[in-house]
């Protein structure tokens, strides 16, 4: 096989994941990707135990940009592949072990069993690579095919798990479900982000762009999936258009959004994550506003840059001065496997030495606070304490049955309405998460993953203010860190 012929192969996976380099395409579902061409190795129990005993590598935004600004050279691209391979097998093994620690009758559910099988498959495609080094572009192309398969295989993990736990709700407590899902879905964010980052770097890398005659114009300003010039106001406008269309379809009216503060502000972050969070927050604000009869009242979105020293002077138990070691906790990233203790009495948690706090960068990084204010009547006191729960855990039998059968409910507390029928990040189907109430807790997981957060302040009978804070990746001038070391 000639080199020119060989490098036609990335086109197989390029069409699926070109969306990673273009925020406007993040909602397109990728086509199916065949598994038969991948070399696999049988996963044994010993493999799982060995890999699950390894501490998980805490992921920082610095990890994702350390290989340089695209187009990457051959050596940088191989370095990205090696880094990706070094941390993914252990992450998959931790998820397999955590699933196996669920009560047997829960794991036996076909949906949850499907997720377990998907993780086994993905680990089987990585094990052959764990025994070798990625030293050539030919190896890198083949490894990228494995990453494409991994992303596609797990594209519907959230909706499948949701259905599984809904069906198994008689055999596991709502508290245990919430604890397990919160941990599992946070861990999934990192695993998916690592794989998608290498895919995006692959398609924007110098060797492949030259051979495939790509100009890469649409991805200017991106380092993989990170937009170094992300303008929150543009994301808000995009999400407003989507939510407004669905709101008008459902209710016949659409509230309008007013953006104030500093709408031209930019910082570096993952646009797909911000799109998901903003969509969920606007969806809640639109619904409350319309149902409270205040559709003529604007929904105010205020964008305020965070001071560079914000995380040094205004931290809390999750965000403190990084010199004191309290910026991001492993629990924020699902790196602890503590949920397993609920069922087995022990957990496959990282070693104490790896449980130190996760430092995004060794210097202050600019970020943003986005406030979304509505006049939708606020959140009732009895519901306020449950806003971070996965809503299906409070469904009654009728509501649960309706959701499982694809029906809907008119109950205002069920969350089952047209405004839930919006795609989430990572390929979740437009209808698959409808009514399952994952929006707010999953949005908080995305925000907290890199040191941000979501705070909700409600005035019952009046309205709600939601504060979203995000920390950026740092000032990027020329090289990923503006000449400063990490």
From TrEMBL:
Annotated region (Disordered), positions in chain: 337-377, 400-420
Keywords: ATP-binding, Kinase, Mitochondrion, Nucleotide-binding, Phosphoprotein, Transferase
This protein's GO CC annotations: mitochondrial matrix
Compositional bias (Polar residues): 337-355
Span of domain Histidine kinase/HSP90-like ATPase: 269-474
Claim: Mitochondrion is one of the keywords in the record: yes
Subcellular location: Mitochondrion matrix
Gene Ontology MF term list: ATP binding; pyruvate dehydrogenase (acetyl-transferring) kinase activity
InterPro entries in UniProt: AK/P_DHK_N_sf, BCDHK/PDK_N, BCKD/PDK, HATPase_C_sf, HATPase_dom
A GO biological process held by the record: regulation of glucose metabolic process
Pfam families, alphabetized: BCDHK_Adom3
Listed Low complexity bias regions: 405-415
Tagged with keyword rRNA-binding: no
Protein family according to the UniProt entry: Belongs to the PDK/BCKDK protein kinase family.
PANTHER family, alphabetized: [3-METHYL-2-OXOBUTANOATE DEHYDROGENASE [LIPOAMIDE]] KINASE, MITOCHONDRIAL, PYRUVATE DEHYDROGENASE KINASE
Protein name: Protein-serine/threonine kinase
């Amino acid at each position: 096989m000639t080199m020119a012929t060989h490098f036609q192969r990335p086109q197989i996976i390029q069409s699926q994941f070109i969306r990673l380099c273009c925020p406007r395409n993040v909602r397109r579902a990728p086509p199916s990707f065949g598994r038969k061409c991948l070399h696999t190795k049988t996963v044994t129990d010993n493999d799982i135990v060995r890999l699950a005993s390894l501490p998980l590598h805490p992921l920082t935004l610095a990890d994702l940009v350390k290989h340089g600004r695209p187009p990457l050279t051959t050596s940088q691209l191989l370095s990205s592949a090696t880094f990706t391979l070094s941390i993914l097998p252990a992450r998959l093994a931790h998820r397999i072990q955590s699933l196996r620690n669920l009560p047997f009758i829960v794991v036996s559910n076909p949906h949850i069993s499907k997720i377990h099988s998907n993780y086994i498959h993905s680990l089987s495609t990585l094990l052959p690579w764990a025994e070798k080094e990625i030293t050539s572009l030919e190896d890198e192309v083949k490894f990228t095919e494995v990453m494409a398969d991994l992303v596609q295989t797990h594209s519907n993990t959230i909706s499948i798990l949701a259905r599984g736990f809904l069906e198994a709700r008689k055999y596991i407590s709502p508290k245990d479900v919430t604890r397990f899902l919160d941990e599992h879905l946070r861990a999934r964010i990192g695993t998916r982000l690592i794989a998608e980052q290498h895919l995006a770097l692959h398609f924007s890398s110098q060797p492949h762009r030259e051979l495939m005659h790509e100009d890469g114009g649409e991805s200017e300003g991106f380092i993989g999936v990170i937009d170094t010039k992300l303008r929150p106001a543009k994301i808000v406008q995009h999400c407003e258009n989507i939510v407004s269309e669905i709101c008008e379809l459902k209710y016949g009216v659409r509230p309008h959004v007013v953006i104030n503060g500093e709408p031209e502000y930019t910082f570096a972050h993952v646009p797909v994550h911000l799109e998901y969070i903003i969509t969920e927050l606007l969806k809640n604000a639109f619904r409350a506003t319309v149902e409270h009869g205040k559709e003529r009242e604007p929904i105010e979105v205020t964008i305020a840059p965070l001071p560079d020293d914000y995380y040094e002077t205004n931290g809390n138990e999750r965000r403190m001065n990084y010199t004191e070691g309290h910026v991001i906790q492993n629990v924020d990233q699902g790196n602890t496997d503590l949920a397993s203790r609920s069922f087995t009495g022990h957990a496959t948690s990282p070693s104490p030495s790896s449980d130190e706090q996760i430092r995004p960068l060794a210097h202050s990084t600019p970020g943003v606070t986005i406030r979304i204010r509505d006049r939708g009547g606020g959140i009732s006191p009895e519901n306020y304490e449950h806003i971070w729960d996965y809503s299906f855990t409070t469904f009654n039998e009728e509501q649960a049955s309706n959701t499982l059968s694809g029906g809907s409910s008119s109950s205002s507390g069920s969350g089952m309405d047209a405004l839930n029928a919006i795609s989430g990040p990572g390929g979740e189907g437009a209808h698959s998460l409808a009514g399952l109430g994952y929006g707010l807790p999953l949005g908080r997981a995305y925000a907290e993953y890199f040191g941000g957060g979501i705070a909700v302040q409600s005035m019952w009978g009046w309205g709600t203010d939601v504060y979203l804070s995000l920390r950026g990746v740092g000032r990027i001038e020329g090289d990923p860190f503006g000449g400063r070391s990490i």
